[in-house]
Amino acid sequence: MSGEKITVERWSRLSIGAVAASVAVVLLFSAGPLLFQANVIDQLTTLFIYIILAVTWNALAGYGGLVSIGQQAFFGLGAYGAVRLADAGVSVYFALVLSALVVGLVALPISAFMLRLKTGEFAIGMWVVAVLTHLLVNLDTLVRGETGTSLIALNAYAAETRHALTYWTALGAMTAMLGILFALLRSPLGAAIQAIRDDDDAAASIGVRVMRTKRIIFVLAAVGIALAGALWLATTITFQPKTYFSVQWTAYMIFMVLVGGLGTFEGPILGAVIFFAIEAWFGQTGVWYLVGLGAAALSFALFLPRGIWGWVDAHFGLRLLPVGRTLREP
After folding, report:
1. Alpha carbon of 245 to those of 75, 108, 256: distances in Å?
2. DSSP state, 116?
3. Distance between CA 166 and CA 170 in Å, rounded?
4. How far is residue 224's CA from residue 78's CA, in Å, rounded to a whole number?
């Protein structure tokens, strides 16, 4: 790749401290059900799910360059798969995780077609996939069309126990996804992903297996988003296809990543926290809440295109977590 090199950032005292602080926070959160009230537990569970959504969409679009407006397909399939597996007798919390893995397998043949599309074609193509999966799920007699169904296996647990188990599952899923993505982006594969984002033809010319690399990040993003969908089902119990396959989920992902910082590791986490706070404070205002989100996203796109953490990184060089990045030489 002429005039360009891929580097992996080295550990600094700041990054070591940031990782240590992150581990301490996760350990503190692991005791959440013993420390916090039930409503706080539910709110934190929601935040963990938002973080999973943000970091996985950012991995796909920010690092992989695959901008999709149809990721709600995997969100809905994750929830649907959990319903189906639990109905088949699989332990309900195991079904949440297993459903995400099954969706990853489903994403493999989808990637064979979608990854042949470029930029806008890929984005629209993924939206079409979401519409088609929605229609197919509606045909299942268990779901009963838009009437929907419930994850009734959760009723076997007392409410307090169910909330705690869902919380721990969401915390574990978030921690696992962050760890996997961090390790991936620091690996040679992570450097290859970013090289493809910048120029896939140039990446191929130096030996990067473009289609294979794209497929890995595509499937990983599908698994993460499906896991978020299954976890969301565990918080609401009720499954209605029009809710889970709604494009609003992808809109939320895009908002969190744009606000936090596209193509940064820390940015989507920050964006998820900001979105969670906005929803908590203004979510009851109805349509004005959605108008406000749209206006905020547009403002960031116009005046702060790199997001909050992207701006911080550009002006102060502050990166708490050392992940690979592409540098262009003059």
Report:
1. 7, 19, 19
2. T
3. 6
4. 9
